[in-house]
Amino acid sequence: MDYLGLFCLGAFVGTIATFGMGKVVSLKDWQTVLSLTLPAVLSGAAMVFIDRFKYSPAFGSYPLGLVVALLWAYTQKSIDNLKAGPTSVRILALLHLLVSALVTGAAAVVATVPAYLQVRAEWEVSMAERVDEMRLMRSASRDQSAGAGRGQARGRTSGAAAPESAPK
């Protein structure tokens, strides 16, 4: 899930930064927007996640999320240019939309396939633990019923191991 979480974090932070920078029209606006956007981008939560995963192979999903957010932030401008613009601008707008779709698709594969594999592996492990626990409980109940049939006192077990309380 590291890949998917870092990708989403990158997309979130990238969206905040991109929309903040989209409001810049003058030098004074640049300073104001930068002073408001940087604390949001470099907030404590984002930096904690980045610091925790800086040596993880999943860390590459974070900048991928930033790039996807940047690409999609300018799609409306590309659509407007595609509708009413010179031919060269229309070609660039179409290329931008195509690249945005391809990068988003690639990012979805990069972020979700490892997450799916991790969830599947954890499900198989938890299922194996549940099966083992059920077998242990079944054998304990068989031992108990066999012991009660021989006239043992009520409440005594036949020496079988008690099942664990709950799965992890």
Oligomer: single chain
Whole-number mean pLDDT: 79
Low-confidence stretches: none
- The count of helical stretches stands at 6
Order of helices and strands: HHHHHH
Q: Strand percentage, roughly?
A: under 5%
End-to-end separation: 19 Å
Helix content: over 70%
Per DSSP E runs of 2 or more residues, the count of β-strands stands at 0
Rg from alpha-carbon coordinates? 28 Å
Largest sheet: none
> Which structural class fits the helix and strand makeup?
mainly alpha
Question: Based on CA inertia axes, which overall geometry fits?
Answer: elongated
Q: How would you sum up this structure in a few lines?
A:
The protein is mainly α and 168 residues long.
